[in-house]
Design brief:
Strand content: 25-35%
Shape: globular
Order of helices and strands: EHEHEEH
Structural class: alpha+beta
Helix content: 25-40%
Radius of gyration: 13 Å
Number of strands: 4
Amino acid sequence: MCIRDSVKFVGVAVNDDPTAAAAFATSTGIDYTIGFDDGAVSQDYNVRGLPATFIISSDGVILEQIFGAVSAADIDEKLEQWFS
């Protein structure tokens, strides 16, 4: 089984119009859950820039923070590192 099949992906639109963010997600083929942040989540997670990727364990521990763009291959490598 592929690790991606057992991982939950959640996107967060930061300080964005929910309708516009949802339309953008649909137009780019994003099929995972999108949440909306008015700034509180960014503050709680100490986001220093966007895009930001957080790898979080099933018990809520932040395993890794990545600031800047990541490729699908980067994500696959990180998932393999943390969850295999």
